[in-house]
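re the bet — no i am not wrong, look at it urself. input seq straight from the record:
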Amino acid sequence: MPAMFIEVLVGLIGILIVIALWPMLKGPSSGASAVRRKKHSNRSRTEINAPTARRCPVCHATLGPGERIKSVVFSGGTAHREIHEHTTHIFGCPHCYPNNHVHPRVCPVCDSTLTRDGYLLARMFKRPGKKDHVHVLGCTDCRGPRTRRSAPRNVE
């Protein structure tokens, strides 16, 4: 009886040693986790943490650090729950505003070239704790002020 007890005890200790040393016995890891580690190690930390490049909605030029889009956000607007909506006029970035021939100012809605005094009409949505979201509605040509002549008529 004591001999059998010792054999069982030695067997259990052997199993515990194998379980403890299993990661080293298994060798180099394989599968998706090794591929993920390899892809991650090829990129530097600055590439991983770098924000995506911002682009001008008028001329699509890539904005550098410190470059801002010239726009006017009107006060008032509407609020629904936590989201505040404001009317916005977007004129362009340092590359396209004031108007020049190197970077043409194009409306993303109707694809027409903006006039010298033209701008984009947009709605800006501000949410607390999140980035502002801008929705471009059109330009002064395709979404400009409506006159009495162009207003829809009630046909009977």
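see?? Residues 29 and 37 are 10 Å apart (CA to CA). told u. also The radius of gyration is 32 Å. so pay up
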